[in-house]
Each structure stands twice: as structure tokens, then as C-alpha cells.
Amino acid sequence: MRGQMMDVPLQIKSLLWRAERLYGHKEIITRTESGFRHRTYAEFGGRVRRLANALRTLGIQPGDRVGTLAWNNDRHLEAYFAVPCMGAVLHTINLRLPAEQIGYIIQHADDEVLLVGPDMLPVLEGLRDQLGRVRAILVLSDDDPPETTLTLPVVGYEAALAAEKEEYDFPDLDENTAAGMCYTSGTTGHPKGVVYSHRSHTLHALTLGTTGSIGVDERERYMLVTPMSHVNSWGMPYGCVLYGATIVLPGDHPVGVDYLETIEHGRPTFFSGAVTVGMLIRETLQHSDRSWDVSSLKTLWLGGQAPPVSEMRWWKENHGIDVVQAWGMTEASPLLTFCGLASQYGDLPAEDAYEVLGRQGQPLPLVDIALVDDEGVEQPWDGAHSGEVRVRSPWVASTYYDDARSAETFRDGWFYSGDIGRMTADGYLILVDRSKDLIKSGGEWISSVDLENHLMAHPAVKEAAVVAAPDPKWLERPVAFVVTQAAVTTAELAAHLRAKFPSFWVPDRFEFIDAVPKTGVGKFDKKLLRRDYV
Amino acid sequence: MRGQMMDVPLQIKSLLWRAERLYGHKEIITRTESGFRHRTYAEFGGRVRRLANALRTLGIQPGDRVGTLAWNNDRHLEAYFAVPCMGAVLHTINLRLPAEQIGYIIQHADDEVLLVGPDMLPVLEGLRDQLGRVRAILVLSDDDPPETTLTLPVVGYEAALAAEKEEYDFPDLDENTAAGMCYTSGTTGHPKGVVYSHRSHTLHALTLGTTGSIGVDERERYMLVTPMSHVNSWGMPYGCVLYGATIVLPGDHPVGVDYLETIEHGRPTFFSGAVTVGMLIRETLQHSDRSWDVSSLKTLWLGGQAPPVSEMRWWKENHGIDVVQAWGMTEASPLLTFCGLASQYGDLPAEDAYEVLGRQGQPLPLVDIALVDDEGVEQPWDGAHSGEVRVRSPWVASTYYDDARSAETFRDGWFYSGDIGRMTADGYLILVDRSKDLIKSGGEWISSVDLENHLMAHPAVKEAAVVAAPDPKWLERPVAFVVTQAAVTTAELAAHLRAKFPSFWVPDRFEFIDAVPKTGVGKFDKKLLRRDYV
User: Fold this and answer.
1) Quick check: A394 and B10 CB within 8 A?
2) Which of A32, A103, A278, B382 is most buried, taking the most CB atoms under 10 A from its CB?
């Protein structure tokens, strides 16, 4: 027997509808070179529809991909709504990827139009022969686009919007229609794409506003520092609009002082950003020769990797600000868990509470989580057994986009996260290791396998193993262990890697050893390397 | 282009999974004749699966309807999960309906098994020939079932559970599978059924935990007084289990003092119940010869009709307790709006805040609302124009179950609520009238049209119009305006009505008038009657 409820699809346009109808007076505030720009949700809605019209004028059809290569600003936020609401697909391209990877994913995603910050035009000029189907570029700026050597039409965003009307009748879409794409760096090879749907984005946004999660609330003010160019700024653009909250955006290429000026002006109560950005702000506060007013802040959500308890303590003790964490990834929209103090810990003294707050959190509603050993046998939730964390949820990907590597990650209806963890009896995840050979440096993935393979391609290298070492600034940095078969210097090996990889991938430290320790099945035993050398 | 996310259905079993895995230690507390019964979610989960096994033993198959005729207790809550999770349909039958309507809906819904409180057996004995396909009855009690004249198998609930095992592998279901049914009284004729789905219940439960809504939170304790036998106790059983909150249930046939004892023992922070129950508790507090400890309570959610501002003020001024309201109905699972003080009213003095809190609230996420005039033309949200409120949401019904009357209520993809309202520019609904001829007395619907038709069937009556009059206890009571064509007394008319309708339908007041005023198109002008006589 079927239920007899309305077949109302879960659609991103319903988030926009609510912000406009209930919260038209609330603001989106963006830092710009010439000060802070304030726009209300009422203005925002009109501009979103102008952008949809402009994209239609450029020939964008339902299902077409629209790429963005842009910072966290209000225009980028307009694209977050205009593109999916018209039935097209918002492909956010990570600004920090090396140019060749940007070229790869523009072509792999079949982007038709690109929305780019003016500072990104030189990158595209360098990729002129790798732009695939791109037929036009909109430049996100107040001004006319700068001179460019590109032969494609390059159009100013404001001029394009000014030429259009504010009305656009967004279609009703099947909720499984693609809404967005984002590429994530894998253990090896090209980045892999994830295709989000209206359903997944809507459910994820709804869950951001629940208790025991971020609890996005229209009475709070949210500063979104996590890149909108990657992992959907943790879903906060959709969550904040759905709940009608004030949004504060740090604008183009912010540095330490810019974050603090944005906090002083926008007076956010909540901040979401990478652990490394939180540390950068902390250092700026500590060493600045002027004092900064961060008194509006109540909560810092720091992620990308687990925030150290020392950071949590510093913010709490010096500014009364709570640092919270969650766990997730590109494949999961990204949020899977959130760490709060559940009621059974309500009376803990502060020192003991940090042990709980240092965990990765409890699964959100509609997130199913399990620990499995190498044979796929489920492990108990007793705080002692560990296993690879696998997850299932309506907002987790079922595959990578057109990518043969999907089968190793998506199996039996589960996503295998590659993270090794324990679960407490009350459902808190505690990560202990990674099964995949990835290093997370400054919030960005570095593939140890790719580095090892290229090191071993050097004629003087017999074996090479790369592992993560703790780093005070980047949290992790790669260290290379090398067994040589001919004379070679550290500088030569670094140059060899720099020719192929982004410079931040290149290890700061090379250790020459006699042999790489091996596991029972002959694999490099990186656990031993980490234990003995790092 | 389609999204490539997991096809994970929205299912009620995911709510249970979360309560068991994360909140196994939290409690469900039920008032019983012999004291308060405490069960943990861990125990609850095992009992839910035992019940599913017991129902399978009784022959229940996917899609079969399981009726409940029961009070708010933990066993009823077990049925809320066991029945839909096994793929069957939970048909909650309103305890307060007249017996003949109970007989009608048991047959109309094709109930196969009934779960009933021991005090309900006499009702079923009186309906012995109107039990349709019912093949067995489970009696929700600690004890063996009492003697009965029913010839069906009548089985004790605890004995049935004890005979089964705690394991049951709940199937993965299409999210549009029917999960529940509830019948609502209409303007005329038999009650009309609504069929909820796993999708609608899950989304509704999720939304109960969001900011700007009830905000169900595991750190709070919820006393559910709204009948679980009607309108899903406002969805709170599903919402509280999803979020892992402590549940406090008032048990079988509670009276004023029972509510207060339950508050003292269960120490709820939140209470949901009918406005009339809230008023009853207030009167008990005012007139009791002992003092009661209601200090645990922070919020009373009173509904069924709008709580008077005088009630809000009494609770706030005497106990510091906030009274909140929402708007919804059986057809909408039921919640459509919730009234909180949005940030723009944050600084209002208390007196002005009551004007806002007296509204019916803002639409929840995923609820689309519009005002339309008689021609279906949408009216502006300016706080001045009024219109019938129509709604659209994934948790609103698309039709009544097997009922020819559906077409007048469900049109063009909208549910026409029958309520007349205004919308403020910031999206607050203010109800002003009802387009349907219904009177809401003590939280129960009374059909004025049915009363009028039967009055006019009396040989002495020429015309009759029934309207609602304000009442201090029941909030509304029917008043009959009668034009006679022969001598008749009030007592005769009351007896005439009592022969056909439940006694609470019979007007307390009959007014004999010369003619019923008419509208331009010749209909009874009830607005005029209300204005001049009530």
C-alpha cells in the first residue's frame, strides 16, 4: 500500500522561497576591496533570477554544467541558487588546485559557462586549449572585465545581470535532478567528481538546522570562510538561506587581517572555516599590534581535519568562544557527524568535557554508520574495537562521476570513507587512522602514493615511502623515506617532484634509509615508519 | 542530468536505529495505575521487534492495516514503530469518536488486527458486527485480557511479546510506502482518512527538531498529552525518538490531577497538548488544595485551536512558562507553521510580544503557503488582505483515502485548508475565520451543517443555522438559530439531536428567530448571525 501524500519534490528553490518570503529584510554581507557590500535577501532573490536569465541568454539549458572559480562572495552565492534552480548544474571548482587539474575537471565535467573572479582569468588564459566546451566566461566583479588574451566571450557579471529582468519562473524538478558537482583529490591520479542532487542538498540543508547538529538559526549570524569553491562551503550557503540567517562572507583572497576586519564589521556569532584558518586568526590576534573585537563570536566550527584540543582551549579561555567539530567529506555533501556535549556529559568538568569535544561526533539524523574490519565484518561500538568507517545516507554519493575508480570506494550500498575509527557505546566516532595513503596539509589532500611513485621513477631511487608528520602550521606535512641505488641529493629529489606536483606537495624533509619496513603481505609498513621516525 | 547520490529511502526505521544506537540509556516514562513505568530506548527497541514478530505471528503482512484504540502509553509507542517498520500500516483510531464512527473507520480502513486498551473492549463488544476484517485483538495491559463476549481471539499484549524473540530484520521499504492512517471529521458525513508515508513521517519528524520549529532536543524531556490516537500526537512520538529525547506519557484516561502527578514525577521541560487540557491544568493548579511542582516545565505547546493570549500570560506570569502555538491539521501530519519570536521582534517589550505570539506562526521549511480568494487569485502578504490558506508540502496529503469528497479539498496540487487568514509581510499567518462550517469544541470538530440538516428534518423546524459561540471552557460551543413552523421546545430539539449525534455536539443554546439572514447568493449568512447574536 502506498502513502497518499503530495508528491512535492525536495528542491533548492524551496530554500530560496523561504528566505525571500520570511526573511527578505535579512542581509548578506561581503568584504570587497572598497568596503563591505550589504544586500538583503529580497535583493538577492531578484539578482538570482537575473543571473538565471543571463545564463539562459548564454544558452544554458537544463542539465548543462556551469563552472565557478570564485571566492566566497555574494555573487558566488547567487550562482549557488540560480544555476540549480533553473535546472542546470553548479560545478564549483577548487581555486587551490594546480592549473592542470583545473583544466582536467573543466573538461571532465563538460562545463559550458564559467563564472570566475577577475584574479582567475590568468589561470584560464594559461588553460586556453583545455577549456573543452566552455563557450563564455562571466567575470564576477563590479567593473568591466579586464583585458584578456582569451578568444571566448568574456562578459562582466553586473552588465549581464543589468540586461535581464528579475522574473524567472523556476521549473518544478524531479528531486533527483543533478544540482551540483565538486571534485575531490584522491589517493592517486586525477580528482574525482561527485554529483549532488536537489534532494541531497535540500536534506543536508534541513539537517544543518537541527538540534545536535550545527543548529543554523535565523537569530544568529554566520561567517562562511570554508571555500565556496570546494565541498559547498560545508553546505552552509544552502543551510543559511533555508533558515534565513544573516551571512557574512570574507570576499576575495582574504588574509589574516581581512578575516578580523570582516568579523569586526559583520559581527558574526558563528564562524566556519578550516582548522588552519582558525590557527591563522589566533596567531594574528596574538601578535597583532592592535586589538581586535571578536566579541560577537560564540562558536567556531573548525574542520578539514580534527581541531587540536589546545586550539579549543585557547579560544575558550581567551575569548569564551566554543570550538566545535564535525566529520565529513566531499562525497558526503559533506556533513556526517557533529560533536556536541550530549546530555549525559552535561555535568562534566571542563577538562573532561574536552575529551568528548575532541571526538568527531555522533551521526546526524538519516546517517547510518558502521565500522568494518578488512573482511567487512561489522565491529562493535564499545570504544575499543576499531574498523574502517562506512556510511550510508541520502546525501552520500553512490559513485564518482564517470570514473572507473568508483568501485573500490562504493560497495554493497555503502561509502567506504577510508578513515579508521572507533565508536563509543553512545555513538561517538573517534578517528584513529586513515586506511588510504593521504596526507592532509593545510586542509588540502596530498597523495603519498603519487609522490612515492614519482620518487621511485627517479633512476637513483630504489624504494620510497611518504608519510604524514605533524606540523604546527599545516597540521600535517609529508616526509619522504628513500632507499637509494645511486648518489642523489635532497635538492635533486625535490626538484624532480616539483616538476610534476604543486609545490605544497613537495616534502620538506627527506630521510635516507637502508630499507622500507614491510608488512606481512609485503606492503610498505607506514605505521612502523610513523612510529619510529616521525 | 541526474544526481549520483545514494538511493537511501526515508524510513521510520532510521529514527529507531538512531535512538537505540545513540540514546539507548534514555527513558520512556508512562503513568500507570500502579505507578510510573520506566523503559530505556534499548529496552524499547527490543520490544518493538518483539511486537513486529507477534504481529507476523498473527498473520500481518506488508500493507496490512493494524488499528490502535489506545491512550498515550509506551505500548502504543511501540506500535508506532513496529507496525510501519515491518511494512504494515498503523491506523490510529481516535478514542473520542462515537462508537458508530469507530465501526465505520475500522471497516473503511480494512483493519486486520486491533491493539486496544482494556477499557476499549466494551466499545468493540458493541461493534461486534462492524469489525470487518479484524481477525484478532491485542489488549495493551500488564494483565491477561478481561472476560469478553467477543468471539475473535483476544490476546494479552505482554503474553504475545513474551512468546517472541527480540530480533527482526526490518525490510528496506520504498519511502512512499504507507506508514500510517488517521481519520478526521469533516464538515459532514463520515470521517475521512489520510494515509501517511514513511517519507512524510520522516521529513515531518526531522523538521520537528529544527530551529524556528519545536526544536526537539535530546537534552529536553517531552510530555506528550496530545492523543496518540489522533493526528499522531502532533508527530512528537517520531520526533522525540529521532532526536533521542526523554518521553513522558500520561497513560490511560488521565484527569486533571493525573497530569500534574505526571509532571511532578516525569519532570518534563516541554508539554504538548490541547488548549483545553492546558486550561484544565491551569484550573487544577488554581483550585487545588495542595501545591504542585511544575518547575521543570519551560514550554507548553498548546494547540487544537489558538491558545488565548490570556492563557499565555497566566503561565508566563505565574510560572515563567512560555506557551507556544503552531498551526496544522490531520491532513498535514500535522505541522505547517510554528510561532516563535523572529529576530526582528527580539527587542519587543513583553506586551507587544504577545501580539506576535498570538499569531499562528511562520511556515516550516518545505512548507509552501498561499492565500487565495474565492476565484483562486493569490492575495498579497501585507497583513491586510485575507484569503483561504492553501498549502503544499511533502507531508501534506494529496487525497482522502477512498473518498469521493477529496476533490473539493485537494485541487491543482494544493490542499485547501478551509481556514481564512492573513499573512504579514514577514510571513506570519494570522487566522481570521473558517470557510468551512465547523465548530471546534474542546479540540474536537462539530459539523454545523450536519446539525442544521438534522434540525431541519424535524417537522416543526423551517430553517436552522448553527454557529460557534466563544466559551470559557471549550473555547467554542455551537449555538442553534431556529425558525419554527410549529410549536417546539428547546428540550425537544436537543433530544432530537441527541438521538443522532454525540452529546457534546448538542448546542447548549437554541435561539428562536423569525428568519435566518441570507447572503447575496441565498446562503445562510453566518457572519451576520455571529456578529449580531453571539
Assistant:
1) yes
2) A278
* Cell output for A165: 529582468
Rounded CA separation A56/A50 (Å): 10
A-interface mutation test, from B1, B5, B410, most A Cβ less than 10 A away: B5
Residue B396 forms contact with A (CB below 8 Å): yes
**Which candidate, A467, A440, A534, A457, places its Cα nearest to that of A500?**
A457
Beta bridge partners of B16: none
Q: Which residues lie closer than 8 Å to A216 by C-beta, 6 or more apart? A: A208, A209, A222, A236, A239, A240, A242, A243, A245, B211
pLDDT at A456: 83
> Each residue of B272-330: pLDDT tens digit?
999 889 999 999 999 999 999 999 999 999 998 788 888 999 999 999 999 999 999 99
Give the residue ranges of chain A where pLDDT is below 50: none
Domains in chain B, CATH or no CATH each:
13-328 (3.40.50.12780), 360-434 (2.30.38.10), 438-533 (3.30.300.30)
A residues 140-169 near B, CB within 8 Å? none
Which residues in chain A (409-428) have CB-CB distances under 8 A to chain B? 413, 415, 425-427
Q: How far apart are CA A284 and CA A350, in angstroms?
A: 26
Told to judge if A445 belongs to the known catalytic residues of this protein, a careful annotator would answer: yes
The DSSP 8-state label assigned to residue A499 in this structure reads: T
**Assigned C-alpha cell, A96:** 587551490
Grid cell for residue B53: 514478530
Is residue B323 within 8 A of residue B312, CB to CB? The reply is yes
State the average pLDDT for chain B. Answer: 93
Min distance A390 CA to chain B CA atoms (Å): 13
pLDDT given for residue B385 in this prediction: 92
- In angstroms, the Cα distances linking A99 to A70, A124, A497, A500, A505 are 14, 8, 16, 12, 14
Catalytic residue set of B: 184, 331, 440, 445
CB–CB of A1 and B89 under 8 A?
yes
